[in-house]
Amino acid sequence: MKFRCERDDILEAVQFASRAISNRATLPVLSGLKIEAGTDRISVASTDLELTMQTVFKAAVDEPGTAIVPGRLFGEMVRSLGAGQVSLARGEGEVEIGSGRGQFRVKTLAADDYPALATEDSDETVDAVTIEVDGSHLATALSQVVRAASTDESRQVLTGVLWEIESGSLTLAATDSYRLAVRNLRVDGGPAELRKVVLPARVLGEIARYLQGGAGGVGCSVRENLVVFTLRAGDDTKANGDAVIGSRFIEGEFPNYRQLIPETYPNALTIEREALIDVVGRVGLLAQNNMPVKLHLGAELEVSAHTPDVGEGQEVVDAEYQGESLVIAFNPQFLLEGASAVQTDRVVLEAGDGLKPAILRGEGQDAFTYLLMPVRLS
Amino acid sequence: MLSTVLGRVARKKRAMTSDAAARDRNVKGMRIAEPILHVDMDAFYATVETIKDPSLRGKPVIVGGQGTRGVVTSASYEAREFGVRSAMPIVTARRLCPHGEFISNDPASYLEYSKKIRRVFTSFTPLVEPLSLDEAFLDVSGSVRIFGEPVDMGRRIKSGIEELGLKCTVGVAPNKFLAKLASTRAKPDGLLVVPAAGVEAFLHPLPVDALWGVGEITAEALKRLGLRMVGDIASISRRTLERAVGDALGAHLHALAHGRDDRAVVPDEPAKSVGSEETFSYDLDDAGRILREILRLSDRTAGRLRSHGLSARTITLKVRFSNFKTITRSRTLPEEIDTAAEIYSVTRDLYERLDPDRPRIRLLGVSVSGLEAGPPKRQLDLLGRGDRRCWDEAARAVDDIRSRFGDESVAPASLFTPGDS
């Protein structure tokens, strides 16, 4: 293996691919980064067996081949190199890196030990379900849903996001059992029969992160036990090509979230989204030690909070309200995350009573639903 | 009932025979004749509710449990005009005052205002003895050089309380008994001084049941002797009174009727922890038995916590071994708890982490601190996950059963040994 490339191109690729390297690698070889030179492009990849991240960039290849380099050290080296051309060549049990007047040799890991990448095509690719999604739409949807997933590993399936894939439609749902976020979006393709998979929130966080950098379409290929995302480079003129992220499913039955969403509620508050976020943010400062913020729903919205030995606050904001006046209390963080996930200027908060889940939606849209369980007051 | 009264009398007697420091309060030569204040808030909970919601001001406000078995805990003076009284079933109050504003208890707010009131009191004297959230005795004999006469302090306390939006009544008198009697007679929004020279004039025209310790039964017994007014009691000899109602009660009533009460004002910090500990008659060495005792203490602590209407975040286990080595271990939780199951899950874990080798345990104690008013707030769960709500409901049921059938009537199954009926 021997090639020459621009420092910026390899740096971008290495920084992306390194994100699948686990800090607590189960196998020593998984701390490595797989570099593979083809005819005119270089692939950089890593995997922790659950998550695989791979990308390619154009380079002048003198000699195709593969090397497994120690991921962290190689990443730091590439980052510290000066701008300009970089050369890479594999020697006996090491790679030689040349940059300007510098020469570096780094011991490699055994290429034979490195597991086959899940992202690479295999026989099962044939009957995969595929859909094509707009990258920026997917980025928005992920930002709305992923944070509702649980971080508590004791119930693994809740650390994931449910993907319900149908012909022309994708529904994402996540819940930590205190709130539930559901987002529906249009897609191209998809199976005639509903397909459900649960993907780790962590992986989807990586995809959202990548897509925020601006991206074209995203292809999703659902295989027997994993999904492979192809994140198409929006810009053909760049040296860096498509990025590929492969993720295994989380096993287990995701809760039947549809039955949790109440059909309709008699009480609905409509309010400027920014105003709600501001007031809950301010008053919420005085809801410490797990204290909730109280919302008095009425012709106006009164938000109050009180933490013994810390302080208290209350503020009234304008709102439109239909229904009986009622008091409902929430974890301020959960309420803020729900309100910020809404994409319209005004949000609608529907509530049954102080003990039933409230619904947060954007005014006049139903693609996104945020269900929030109240805090029972003492 | 009778035993409670006698219990009090017995304590009273001991207090009187002891050297009464309160009788001659001398501050650098200055003798204060009326150094004791009794401050009692007027319609405390109801007034706090009107501070929270000023639209309630001037309306009949009735605070209490709103369920079918709820009772009135506080009624505004507007509501009292309809005959509504504290401790009355809420159902009765609704009948008497159908247009009243019925409001659920909000212990957190009352506790908070109670702390504010306490700060007003302690700005005049450190000798504050709270009787409840809304009532306290103050001994101001040490503060007169700074703040002036006790009656002036009474006025300043009243205006300090008014600044909080509350009203109170102050009794100023030579001792606790008279101070409390004075505030009771001056309600609401009053200030009454019982001067040392005017004690008999104040006391003697009052009916006998104004005396502390005189309930219906004693009042009836006194009436049969023709003793209707406090002055009547004061006019007969102590011997005669003792023969009529018994030695202890007779001596007690004789002293009170003459306006004598030597109890000191004992500053009392509000409870910072609730708990239960037990020294065993023989050292425990069986692991199963030790855990059962920890469960028993956890259950008892949880019951006490709930009976005070509190919840707690810090759980402490105390273990004393046969060699008197004592270890305490605590854990603070992110959320408040109030059930035996929750406390035991922590105390058991604390014990198991101690992992004593061949333990011989002399004493075990379980206590909780980091107290909050009211039952725990709960982030409710969409998926109905966890069994906490079940435990909450079970705990309320246990409290109900125990309040009707006694503390021993229901307990965790593992505390029953075969053969128990």
Description of the structure:
The complex is a heterodimer of chains A (378) and B (421). In chain A, 43% of the residues are buried. Chain A has helices at 7-17, 71-80, 135-145, 201-212, 273-284, 332-341, and strands at 2-6, 32-37, 41-47, 51-58, 60-63, 65-70, 85-90, 94-99, 102-107, 129-134, 160-166, 169-175, 179-186, 188-189, 195-200, 217-222, 226-231, 240-248, 267-272, 293-297, 300-307, 311-318, 320-322, 326-330, 346-351, 358-362, 368-372, 375-376. By secondary structure, chain A is α+β, with helices and mostly antiparallel strands. Chain A is 17% helix and 43% strand. The mean pLDDT of chain A is 91. Chain A contains 6 helices and 28 strands. In chain A, helix 5 (273-284) runs antiparallel to helix 6 (332-341). Chain A folds into 3 domains: 2-113, Roll (DNA Polymerase III, Chain A, domain 2), CATH 3.10.150; 123-256, DNA Polymerase III, subunit A, domain 2 (DNA Polymerase III, Chain A, domain 2, Roll), CATH 3.10.150.10; 261-372, DNA Polymerase III, Chain A, domain 2 (Roll). Chain B is α+β, with helices and mostly antiparallel strands and 421 residues long. Among the domains of chain B are: 204-257, 5' to 3' exonuclease, C-terminal subdomain (DNA polymerase, domain 1, Orthogonal Bundle), CATH 1.10.150; 273-415, DNA polymerase, Y-family, little finger domain (Dna Ligase, domain 1). Chain B is built from 16 helices and 15 strands. Chain B has helices at residues 2-17, 44-52, 77-80, 90-96, 107-122, 144-147, 150-163, 176-186, 199-203, 216-224, 230-235, 238-245, 247-257, 287-307, 340-354, 388-405; strands at 26-27, 30-31, 36-41, 61-64, 72-75, 101-103, 128-132, 135-139, 168-173, 191-193, 273-284, 310-321, 326-337, 361-373, 378-379. In chain B, the strands form 4 sheets. A 5-stranded mixed sheet of chain B has the order 7-8-3-9-10. In chain B, strand 7 and strand 8 form a beta hairpin. In chain B, helix 1 crosses helix 13 (247-257), helix 12 (238-245) crosses helix 13 and helix 14 (287-307) packs antiparallel against helix 15. The longest helix of chain B is centred in the C-terminal third of the chain and has 21 residues, at 287-307. The interface between A and B is medium-sized, with 24 and 20 residues.
